């Protein structure tokens, strides 16, 4: 498994991933994708087999949800004012714990820091299985 960290998050998260045994992880800026459209980032993640890590669930979940196959999406969310560098690292560590080394193929894992500073974890299929049943 390898992670592609979006530019909205710190490159320090790459070090977290590498220290946890995912040496091929990288950051969007290191691939020359700074300020590129979200769709371009998603395409690169899919083509190269990266689990995409972002704090932009609203934009990225629908984009990966249009794909039949993707390596996964990890969303690190926080209520306004709580997304510090330390919060990013802690949320990403929790996401890695949640994954437990298992690739989140066609899954979204959302780790959210809420108002009372507790953390909520959600994991769901993306695209939803119901879409496949409807076809």
What does this structure look like?
By secondary structure, the protein is of the alpha/beta class. Helix content is 36%, strand content 21%. It is built from five helices and six strands, in the order E-H-E-H-E-H-E-H-E-E-H. It has a six-stranded mixed sheet, sandwiched between helices. Strand 4, helix 4 and strand 5 (107-113) form a beta-alpha-beta unit. It is globular and about 35 Å long. Residues 130-135 have low confidence and may be disordered.
- Round the mean pLDDT to the nearest integer and report it: 91
Estimated share of beta-strand residues = 15-25%
Major β-sheet strand ordering: 2-1-3-4-5-6
Q: How many individual helices?
A: 5
Residues in helix, %? 25-40%
Query: What is the terminal separation in angstroms?
Result: 30 Å
Radius of gyration: 14 Å
Shape designation: globular
Topology order in helix (H) and strand (E) letters: EHEHEHEHEEH
Overall structural class, as computed from helix and strand content, comes to alpha/beta
Largest sheet: number of strands, sense, barrel closure: 6 strands, mixed
Low-confidence stretches: 130-135
Number of strands: 6
């Amino acid at each position: 498994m390898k992670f592609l960290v979006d530019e909205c998050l710190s490159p320090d998260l790459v070090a977290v991933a590498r220290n946890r045994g995912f040496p091929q992880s990288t950051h969007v800026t290191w691939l020359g994708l700074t300020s590129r459209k979200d769709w371009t980032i998603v395409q690169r993640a899919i083509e190269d087999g990266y689990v995409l890590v972002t704090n932009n669930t609203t934009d990225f979940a629908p984009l990966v949800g249009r794909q039949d196959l993707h390596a996964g999406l990890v969303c690190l969310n926080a209520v306004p004012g709580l997304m510090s560098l330390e919060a990013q690292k802690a949320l990403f560590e929790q996401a890695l714990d949640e994954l437990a080394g298992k690739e989140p193929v066609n899954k979204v894992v959302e780790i959210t820091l809420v108002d009372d500073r507790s953390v909520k974890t959600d994991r769901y299929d993306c695209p939803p299985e119901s879409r496949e049943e409807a076809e």
